[in-house]
Each structure stands twice: as structure tokens, then as C-alpha cells.
Amino acid sequence: MRVQILCLLLTLIVGAPAMSADEPVDLTREDLLAHPEVMGAIAAIDAWVNGRQIYEKIPGISVGIVYDQELLWSSGYGYSNLETKRPADANTLYSICSITKLFTAIGIMQLRDESKLTLRDKVSDHLAWFDISQAYEDSGPVTVEGLMTHSSGLPRESDYPYWIGPDFPFPTREEMIERLGSQETLYPSQRYFQYSNLGWTLAGEIVTELSGQSYDSYIREHILDPLDLNDTRTFYPDNLRGEELAIGYTGMHRDLRRDPVKSFFTRGITAAAGFTSSVNDLAKFASWQFRLLDSGGSEILDANTLREMHRVHWVDPDWKTTWGLGFSVERSDDTTFVSHGGGCPGYITSFTMVPKQKIAAVVLTNAGDGPADSIAVNILGAISSALEKAGKPDEKEIPDFSMYEGNYESRPWGGEVAVRQWGDHLAVIDIPGNDLEEAIVRLKHDSGNTFIRLTDEDDTREPWVFEIGDDGKASKIVRHSGFMSRIQ
Questions:
Q1: Which residue of 111, 223, 337, 401 could cross-link 421, Cys pair, CB 3.0 to 4.6 Å?
Q2: Kindly report the CA angle at 329 between 346 and 110, in degrees rounded to 5?
Q3: Under a CB-based contact definition with an 8 Å cutoff, are residues 364 and 426 in contact?
Q4: Residues 6+ apart with CB under 8 A from 83
């Protein structure tokens, strides 16, 4: 699919004819990937994520960037299986845990649009066995919308310790229903935000009850198959574990060890946390949303229904926690993030979109402390500005600084720096680092093999001098009378 941008992107080919900045240009994915700003942003992202995987000893990380209606770039780091050294990539399957809730939310909204329910309906209107004890006499009813915004007042979990290993005793549907009668609400309905897997389990039960189909068959027929999400499943495919399915590993022990986590089966909690998927499939899921929002009409959902899901429907009394219908909706500066994360035994994942800019980041990890959300937000920050610049005219000639690119270290000090070309300058990325923007130092070419460090305000500071080895590539960086040596 071709990406439409209504402004000029000048080709890098020498002698290409100039075009009017108002003339629309039809840009392919390859055009964007060849643009110096996009190329530089991706190089910096790649080096930074690679560094996090190595220094934080994350077994495997798979990432993808979606722009408009296709996967712009993807990569894998480390391994999906530490024993066999099977590489992680965009096809690797992971438990996506609570990202599952987005699919359950779509099922609820499909039924709403078919007039089979309203968001104001009481849960008990649709589930006759819903008999949790209401601890607050003045509480309003637990509603469908309360389930979708985590404002129902329900406990976080069905009353089983299923997040604790080694066996992860997820209840069956029958066990969940039986235990519900001995539980009670934590808060009055519509009073506070309380994340609730129990609530989303009940939402899945409503999908089953009103559709007359099993949860799995409904989701497959009405969402997964129409979107061609063939590698997304409503269960943990144990027969693929260690091959297509990444093995999950524990968070880091104090002795810096990680252990493989046993297979787990969400059973009665599936609608809240049971899915597995890949970067490639979740990229399709993001692309569908951008396509629907752009074209309008109806595909799986009505476009206005999807917009409704992306809007804030709940604001906590602290004015800090906001939620849409299924989606987390957050505002940072001038950017609205629509997202959901997931955390299951051995897996931490993130699905994050900026609908206005039609960009998304998918980050899947197979570690119980994987930094998926942090990586996703940093990726979006770097790529969004690069894509914005790619859509603007720029006639300046871009020099080739590839001879300086590489990773450098200075022992006995820890860490390293990754030097990558970004547009007409060099980006020096501090590794390891939790914030990509703060980790980057910009260098402007001065003369010969000398560059000058720039501040955030573009003021010039000290020189960085590259020494060139016999292979024609930089072997050292000299600054402040010290040096860093190239390690790769």
C-alpha cells in the first residue's frame, strides 16, 4: 500500500528535477525508509533497543512501527528461546495478555451497534448468574460501560491466585462463576478507577451470552478472520512453545538469573488476558484502525464507533487516570496516545497508537520485567518527528557519514555509545538508557574528521575528533583529551 503525503519529499538522487512544494507526491514505504530523517531515526531506535535488550538481559524483544496502513519497519533482538538460540522477529508469537481486552471491547461494541445491548445496561440484565455482593448500599449498578472503563467497583481478579507460579491456577468458567457469589465489590460503581480482569471476564461472558456463540468462535468469525489475523489466537498454543511461540522468562532475580516460565492457560479469564499474537498481526490491527478512521464507513466496526472507543469515557477523581472504551487514552503535551499493555507470566507487551498521526508502535517481550511500554513511547517520539520532516521540502545535500558509524566504549567505565547518521548530522546514543531523547547527543560536521557537539538549542560546544583506521572506518573518538574505542 502506498502512503499519501500532500507535500514534497525531494529524492536523494543527484540531479532529480525540483517539484513544487504544493504538488502531491505518492510515497511508498521504500521512499520513506530512504529519507535521511526516517533512516536516521530508525538507526537510532535500532541501536537503542538493541542496547536495552543486551544490558537489561531481556531474552527477546520484537518491535514494529506502523505508519498509516502498513508496517513501516520491524526488527527482533535476542532470542525467543534461550536454549536453542531461536531469534526473535516480527513473526514470533508472544502472550499479549491484556491487549486481549481490545478484542473483547470490539465484540461488545459490535453487539451494541446491533442493538443487542446498551452501555448503560446492568451486567445482571445479561448475566443472570451475576451475584457478587454489593458492599455499598448507595452504589449504582455495575454496568457494561463500567466494565469497559474499569470503573465498575469490581475486584481486580476472580478470587484465585492465578498470577502466581509455578502452576498459575486460572479458574474454569464454572469456577469463576461459583466463586463470584462469595466476592464483594471494592468500591461503589462509577466512583474510582480500579483495573479489573474480573470485569473484562464478565464482558467476554456478555459477548458469549448475546451472540449465542462461544467466545473463541465469535472473536474468530467477527474480528480475527476478517482482519486476516491468522497468527492471533484466543489461547496459549503450547504445541508451538519454544518454536513459533516465544518461551516466557521470569523477571530478573537478584543473582541476575532468569528462569523459563511454565505454560499457562487462562481458561475462564480468557476474555481478559488469553490471546497470543505477533508484531506482524498487531501491525495489521493498527493499520485497520487507521484505515477505518481515514475512510469512514464500516469494516468490523462503524468508524464512528471506533472513534467513540478512542475518546475518554472515564476520568478518575485525581484527574490523572483516563480511559476510553477498552483503550487507555492518555494526553502528553500535545499528543494523545491510545493504547493497551499486557503483562502475563513471562511476557510484557505494548500496543500504542497516535491516531492523529497514524503511527503505532508494537513492542513484545518475553520477560516478566520487559520494558515494552517505555520502548513503545520512545519509538513513537523518535519516529513521529522524523516522519513529519519527511513530508516537508528539503533541498540540502546529505553527506555520507557512514564511516563514523559504530559502537564505542571507554574502559574501565561502563556502557557504550552508538554513533549513527541521522540526516545531516551524527547521533550519539548513550547505551544503556531509558529515555531515547535524553540519550542522544547531536554532532555537527566541522571539517575533516572533526564534529562539534550541539546543545538542544543548537549552540556549539566541544569538538569530537574521529581517528580513522586502516579499514577506512573510524576506530576511535577523541574528546576532552580522552578517547573511546570502536567495539563494533
A1: 401
A2: 85
A3: no
A4: 242
CA distance 235 to 263: 11
Q: Quick one: pLDDT at residue 27?
A: 67
What is the rounded distance in angstroms from the CA atom of residue 96 to the CA atom of residue 363?
Answer: 10
Q: Write down the pTM of the prediction.
A: 0.93
- Give the distance, in angstroms, between the CA of residue 8 and the centroid of all CA atoms in the same chain: 30
Q: Which CATH class is domain 94-370?
A: alpha beta
Q: Which region, left, alpha or beta, applies to residue 358 given φ > 0 means left and ψ of -120 to 50 means alpha? A: left
What amino acid occupies position 77?
Y
In whole angstroms, what is the distance from residue 278 CA to residue 94 CA?
6
- With vertex at residue 93, the alpha carbon angle to CA 90 and CA 95, rounded to the nearest 5 degrees, is 130
- pLDDT tens-digit profile of 194-242? 999 999 999 999 999 999 999 999 999 999 999 999 999 999 999 999 9
∠ CA(278), CA(279), CA(283), 5° rounding? Answer: 120
Q: Which CATH architecture has domain 36-56+387-486?
A: Beta Barrel (2.40)
Euclidean distance between CA atoms 325 and 339, whole angstroms: 11
Q: Is the peptide bond before 432 cis (omega within 30 degrees of 0)?
A: yes
Give pLDDT tens digits for 296-328. 999 999 999 999 999 999 999 999 999 999 999
Q: What is the pLDDT of residue 10?
A: 27
Question: What gap in Å lies between CA 35 and CA 69, rounded to an integer?
Answer: 19
Q: Per-domain residue ranges for the chain?
A: 36-56+387-486, 94-370
Stretches where the chain sits below pLDDT 50 are 1-25
